[in-house]
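Final paragraph of the annual report: two paired records, presented back to back.
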Amino acid sequence: MSDLAGGFRYLLAGQRWVLGHGRWLGFGLLPGLVSLVLYAGALVGLGFGADDFVAWVTPFADDWSSPWLALFRGFLTALVFGLGLFLAVITFTAVTLLIGQPFYESLSEAVDRGEGGAVPESGLSLWRELWISARDSVRLLGRVLLYGVLLFALGFVPVIGQTVVPAIGFCVSGYFLTQELTSVALMRRRVELPGQLALLRSRRMLALGFGVPLVLAFIVPLVAVFLMPGAVAGATLMVRDLTADPESDSGADAGEGFGPPPEGYGPPATAYGAPAAGYDRPTGTTGGVDRGFNG
């Protein structure tokens, strides 16, 4: 439970950080606004077309008597729209991060710089970073689709499909949302997707505490746009603690209740190539998080 609450505190700390640095809040809103327009159009189209799609895939029900036909297709229409909303919540962050890669990377660097200590840089060109981000997003989308199809099928199970399955869906969404957001800071630390997932698997409750409240908030129109800058800042603060040198005093203080990263974890020479010259494992202080946690 401490990790669950800790993830939420990181989220709040990130929101406080951008509110205390107003220009970064405005700077970080631009990619979200672009994504919001795109997704709003897609969801409106889905809302108008979901019932026609359900009727097209269930021709065997055309001769059913009332009210069973309306109930059956109405239920399926709600599931289709729910699945679309589920995918929208998951992919919104990926698309927004892809659109706003330069914006959010600059914001993440500003958080590292403002909190003190090392400011890691990937040493990659913008186009290389965009390619890696897009490639990893596609890989994650494949995983999310598998979960989505499974949850969609379980939605037909009476009682469980209307209670347990939605709760699991929010948890899955929150976990992968956290991965997408922490990837900005982790990519600058030269940690690729397998390492990112391994790190979050070691702290699942921390990831859920950070991501699930965001998923719930993102359901409300426009909220996602305004929370994205703070979410990126909060994810960077989390990454700073999770990748801090466990022997560093500052890292130990900031990581109170969170513990060191998994054994063997570090900034490996992955597919990014060898670490850039002068790169060092970040041991920067995270005083901003401490101040936020302690009031």
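The closing record of the year follows.
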Amino acid sequence: MDLDLRKLRYFVAVAEELHFGRAAERLHIAQPVLSRQIRSLEDELGAAVFDRDRRGTLLTPAGEQLLEDAVPLLASAEALLRRARAAARDTPTLTVGFMPGITVTPATAAFAKHRPDVNVRLLRTSWHDQVEVLLDGRADIGIVRLPVDRRGLEVRPLFQEPRVVVLPVGHRLAGHASVTVHDLASEHLLQDPDAVPEWRDVAVELREGRRPEVPAIHQVEEKLELVASGAGVCVLPLSTATFYTRPDVVPLPVEDLGPNQVALAWVSSRRSPLVHDFAEAATETLGRPGTREL
């Protein structure tokens, strides 16, 4: 049996929404068409992938397994198409993903001296997609902030830098030279607690079970707007905090907060000499620990 990638995409949409109506809207197709495609997929698999009853739509064990395998498979299919199209161009192209606050210029300049025939493109990423762009082929190599899911990736450490907490300018701690994680225990963190495990271990709102839901925040600018409004605080790498300087927020060193690790990452199955050459250029130019202080 040959898998129909279109049906897999339909399945993933329903699995992520757990609602046929919302998934149909997301896919821009009629709900009856979506239902027929899912039934067809189940017939081909010989197993139900969803439980449908009055309580809603839930994944079956077969559906959970299919979702786990379908997401990387669809990403690989997207990557295959992008790389094939890129290879057909007259000028070789290398796309480099990078996180906010990281200066890529030294690496791209060193690479250009060695490979002047290559068109280098840059792609700004976020915490949410810095690995995704590698898996689906939007970027050939990325300068990422750890931790990341390393499955299927080659990861090469570059450097580390301090992390700081960003507070509104009128905050009770804003005038301090530095703070500790315990000083921040009563604050509302505007990011996933797992991103700052030191805070998570002492957080009052987690201990008391009153942490409000934090909407997905994809841009640094969004975080800083929320901090400035008094909605909470956030922890950022030093280079990111200093790059986005603004008068209504204050970055402060956190004495007992571990540094952020910056690394190169690319799909481990890639054998592209361009990826290798850029990795060498980045290691030579960016792989020296910085001495920046706030």
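The chain is about 40% helix and 20% strand. This concludes the annual technical report; the extension proposal builds directly on these records.
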